[in-house]
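Hi L.,

You mentioned the student needs an example of a multi-chain input paired with its predicted structure. This one should do, with 863 residues in total across all chains.
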Amino acid sequence: MIYDYIIIGAGMGGLSAGINLILNKKKVLILEKNSLPGGLVSTFKKGRFEFDTSGYDIYNYGNEEHIGKLQKLLKKYEIDVDTKVVPFNSRIKELNTKKEYELKGEFEDLILELEEISPGVIEKLKELVKMTKEVHEAVEILLDGKTPSEEEYPNFYKYLDKYALDVLKEMKFPKEVINILSVWWLDLGSPLNKLSFIDYADFLEKLIFKKNVILNNKNLDFDMKLVNKYQSNGGKIYFNSKVINIINEDIKIVETKDGLKYKGKHIICDLAKYYVFKDLIKEEIKSVNRLENARTIGANGVVIYLGLNRAHEELGLNNYKYYQFLTLDSATNIKYMNSLNHSTWVGYVPNVVNEDASPKNTTILVLKQIYFEDVFKNQGAQDYETVKNDIADRLISQFEEAFGVDIKEYIEEIAISTPFTIERITNSVNGSMYGYMKKGYDSSIHRIISYDEEKVPGVSFVGASGLLGSGIDNAFYSGYYVTNKLLKEKE
Amino acid sequence: MTKIDDLKKERKSIVDTYSGKRVKDTYIDGVIKNFQDVQYVKIKEIIEETSDTKSFILEPDYDKGTKELASFRAGQYISLKMFIDGAYTTRAYSLSSAPSRINKGYRITIKRVPDGLVSNIMLDQIKVGDGLTISRPMGDFGYNKIRDEKNVIGIAGGSGITPFMALAYAVQDKLEDFNLTVFYSVKTEEDIIFKKEIEHFNKHSKKVKFVITLTREEKDGYLNGHINKEMMEPYIKEFNTVLMCGPKALYKTMNEILGEFNIPRKCVHYENFFLDYEPTEEKTYELKVIMKNDFKIIKCKSNETLLVSMEKAGIKAPSLCRVGICGYCRSVILDGKIKMVGGNMEKALSENDYIHPCITYPESDIVLRLDI
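Structure written out for the whole complex:
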């Protein structure tokens, strides 16, 4: 049996690729090393709590007025998911200025809040909002394989090679407003002085118009829906199938740890190219190595999952998200984030937006801290348990102090995920939670326009380490984008 | 168009200045690469604990590639992998040695189970120098300094004492900082495992205390009868964490007692050690196991788990904890009626016909998808 496509990894990218190919009547095999699908988007149970493993917010799903890419694709694949729109509901603490902000409601409310902080800024914000729309449309055109016209999209071209921070400064936004507009850099994993304005504006467009949603059910339910769609159309998926070798010849041979071998005409990796050319493909391709050496692996991090034995109202946890920043100035803050004991983190309370997130009268609190560079290097393996528990202990204490709540005495379940956990489960290089870092010459735009030139014959890449970076929407779309290109090429 | 071309060129010209050599592992990549799911060990020593219980000290088997034993947290277990008369099977045993003294080996302690497939071989046939294959340390049972209180009450029934020995050593060696009182319930004095070590702790440790109660005989120096409220009263503080390891019947009576002390649910943790379910009927059904590149039709019995039936038929079904917790054996029921006893499974999986074969009994002919 020779498959048309062998997909390695049943994460968002791999499953999306699988579904698109199987709906196009191709012979497809997905090999997944774990016993369950989902990759980084999964769910685990501890005691009576079910914890979702990736950020709760889903970008680019959209609503009736503004349908997002993810929803469009799911509709196309005929997959129904129940979602809820999530309004802004964050508390933000900045340590160096001791300032605290609460962002609540719709984006219009946020604009009014910013106007209060800096009277007169409203006009500039309107201009920015308009620009995000223009940029977003231009990116869509580019993804469709066409070129946006310079007359229609002047701002897209004007800011194509500019960093987000520089553009905001050029637009004369006051510093404090820029700072508040920087809060989401943690979602993107790149500070505003390294993030292309196009990536930033495209992200804002999703935030403002598509609005974030969360899944009503757990991530694993979503994963199962994707797998069922794929299988019911004839797709084959093998779990517990860790790929250890790819022989990249005319007919590709994929070897798994259990000694089985599979043949396919084309390989799609829901993995970083970095990992595949480090560990799976023996063949040396200089241009690939150059590119991989030139890129930066995204931040990794520690995630603390807490199951609390009280309702969130009783605990005083009334916001969906809690942020603490050393400074809201992302360019400065990132310099402090290459050590294990910095004080920037984000906390989620999913129960605030979804009362079914955990059993009645309980609450889930998820705390996440990210790190740049190889910060675990100096911690001996022996100390791993201690290091991990110390980080958790510190983050929980900081959270209690920052927002004046008691958490520790209500902890019924605790689970801690580290970069080691993430890499062991997903083979994400360095345990990265963002794929490659979007910065400088490795922005989404750079990746899209260089896609054809940088293609590796016979092997394609999807997922968070792919074209558009991390996030369920991006990873999922990459699976569609790449397979669509492949299908067109074959025609 | 030119601006886009410029951008493309810019990327290419920068990339071209980088090395064309293969990319390297980061520190974390290296650690994960060396991560082994299985460990090869040799029996270093066998200790006769009681008439029906032996301890085994395991050391790394260098020749087979295990250079050092993986570190563990007090309370964790290893899964022993055996191949007996054409059947692949596993057994989970708590580590009872000191986590800070890995260089002296792991200790597991095995009590004879009448007709037990593995325990009888371990007690009667295995000798010093023999090689074994085991998993990495697994499981969540034990003390967690963030979650738990400083006053810890241990409840141990029979061989459920094993993880508490590791916890006692963790306290003694200052890996953990809490007060530990272990109530250890055994039938007779003869049945006490680790008697000397327990006496040593009771004599010398300020933080660790074992209270032994004999349920089937009265003897000086021991309490008598099942663990009860009066026995525990002197050791209960304002805030307590309770760790239990033993048969389910023990958990049931203990939960009533803990209720009387008003100890909240969040402070009570169990090790699921035993599978207490005895179907009365014995019927034989057909079990079709669909694997990746193969399928097998075998017999299964209503009083045997699907895992055991598969193992007996020589199918290498994965398993670790064997009590429905770790999720390692999870499989999909494609057809048939089953009874799953306990376990802890994500809702999305139950809704998609996943089961844990290690705690599942057939009630009809079965078709199972086993992902191996």
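You could point out the following to them. Chain A has a mean pLDDT of 96. The longest strand of chain A covers residues 261-269.

Best wishes,
N.
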